[in-house]
Amino acid sequence: MTMMHILLILCFCLSVVSSTVSPCAKWNTTGVTIAGTGEAGNSSFQIDSAKGIFIHKERNELYVADFSNDRVQKFLLADPSRIGITVASGIKNPMKVYVDDDISGPTVYVSLRFLNRVEKWMNGATQGVQVGGECQLCSGVSVDKEKNVYMSESNRHRVVQWSPRTNMTTVVAGKTDTNGSTSDLLNHPQGIYVNRDGSIIYVADMWNSRIQNWTTASREGTTVAGSNQGTEGHDPETLDYPNDVIVDDETNVVYVIDTSNNRVQRWKPFASEGDTIVGDRGAGNATNQLNKPVDLAFDMKGNLYVMDMENNRVEMFELIDNRPCSLESAASSSILGSMITTIIISIISFISMIHI
Ligand SMILES: *[C@@H]1O[C@H](CO)[C@@H](O)[C@H](O)[C@H]1NC(C)=O
Ligand SMILES: *[C@@H]1O[C@H](CO)[C@@H](O)[C@H](O)[C@H]1NC(C)=O
Ligand SMILES: *[C@@H]1O[C@H](CO)[C@@H](O)[C@H](O)[C@H]1NC(C)=O
Ligand SMILES: *[C@@H]1O[C@H](CO)[C@@H](O)[C@H](O)[C@H]1NC(C)=O
Ligand SMILES: *[C@@H]1O[C@H](CO)[C@@H](O)[C@H](O)[C@H]1NC(C)=O
Ligand SMILES: *[C@@H]1O[C@H](CO)[C@@H](O)[C@H](O)[C@H]1NC(C)=O
């Protein structure tokens, strides 16, 4: 390994470290439109009632489940032209989208609400392949590192996992065909977030206006955002028909798209209430407003993207303050920072000694 290699690896590690979003981060509450024109349409600039978004962080690509146009669009975030490229077409009413890496490149998993299934579209494919069995009123979709596919069946009040290894489908959250607000039940689950090793499944339990955390082998979920009683509301303790959720695997902070409140809420671990990070200014199309937001995503830099459904646009809210939460953590992070610097300097001087 040359010194160049080592430096590159170090820079990479540092950039990964610095991309962590602080649990106390702030975003510009004025958004910038990144995709869509604000008017529904089927041109390559437009989207129509899109319901799902996904960001492939390393590739810096935004994928949109363009519901009423029966297609999945890809937008290159570095390209200011905002032209969408169709990566799946001839499908029907895509709800949510997840993009995974395969040898052939990015593979798109898309849930098709009325076709009751999830389809997998390989890079460059002209046709999708169904994965797993039937998924009634299919909504959320996610994939873990073993390529197990998770799907939420809104109509059957459950989340299932399909294993490509065994070709078996198992229920991992909720109880089949039973809805309610006790901890063992779900009520019309929508978007889901599954961690990479598939050990934790977060569910936007929509009709219960709460986010539930289910771990493998548990028979009930715990509420990590919203009222555990399943009561909707507009205060910091409640949510109103949340459509999707993203959890930061490092900090365990839960980010919720609080659809009927037209806002994005952040719940820190063990918090009894959330705080609004963007929106909550009534339904509307101003740059600081949302109208029925249904999905969210973050890019590599921690900027927040919102699928602003009724406005037919994807808004980007820039991360503007990423300082740690308290002075204590500020102190410890600066200690960590100086430790890392010291280590790098020692490695570099060690290597230059070897070269001499
Ligand atoms: C927020 O974004 C708007 C629109 O891009 C910009 O005019 C404004 O200066 C930004 N505010 C901050 C605090 O960065
Ligand atoms: C935004 O809303 C206003 C008032 O409701 C409307 O007149 C305008 O056409 C909307 N703009 C777009 C781009 O939809
Ligand atoms: C696109 O929309 C136009 C109307 O705006 C319509 O005439 C046309 O048929 C649509 N194309 C497709 C492929 O749906
Ligand atoms: C997987 O299971 C489904 C139904 O449970 C069946 O139709 C299909 O043929 C199976 N696929 C393989 C490769 O065994
Ligand atoms: C359960 O879902 C059905 C429709 O799928 C609905 O009619 C019923 O009100 C729901 N029950 C509860 C407790 O929300
Ligand atoms: C979800 O549950 C797991 C297992 O108990 C826990 O490690 C994790 O922190 C929980 N997530 C949140 C956001 O509380």
Keywords:
four-stranded antiparallel beta sheet; Neuraminidase; single chain; transmembrane helix; 356 residues; binds 2-acetamido-2-deoxy-beta-D-glucopyranose; mainly beta; transmembrane; 6-blade_b-propeller_TolB-like; membrane
Report what the structure shows.
Residues 1-19 form the signal peptide. Residues 218-242 are annotated as: Disordered. Keywords: Membrane, Signal, Transmembrane, Transmembrane helix. One of its GO terms (molecular function) is zinc ion binding. The chain crosses the membrane at residues 335-354. By secondary structure, the chain is mainly β. The protein has one domain: TolB, C-terminal domain (Neuraminidase). Helix content is 13%, strand content 39%. It is built from two helices and 26 strands. The strands form seven sheets. The protein has a four-stranded antiparallel sheet, with no helix packed on it. Strands 3-4-5-6 form a four-stranded antiparallel sheet, with no helix packed on it. β13 and β14 form a beta hairpin. The radius of gyration is 21 Å and the shape is globular. Residues 41-42 line the site of one 2-acetamido-2-deoxy-beta-D-glucopyranose.
The CATH class name reads Mainly Beta
Radius of gyration: 21 Å
CATH topology: Neuraminidase
Report the span from N to C terminus: 15 Å
Question: What number of structural domains do the residues give?
Answer: 1
Strand arrangement, major sheet: 2-25-24-23
CATH hierarchy: architecture: 6 Propeller
Bound molecules: 2-acetamido-2-deoxy-beta-D-glucopyranose
Q: Supply the helix-strand structural class.
A: mainly beta
What's the tally of helices? 2
Oligomer: single chain
Largest sheet: 4 strands, antiparallel
Shape: globular
Approximate helicity band: 10-25%
Keywords: Membrane, Signal, Transmembrane, Transmembrane helix
GO molecular function, one term: zinc ion binding
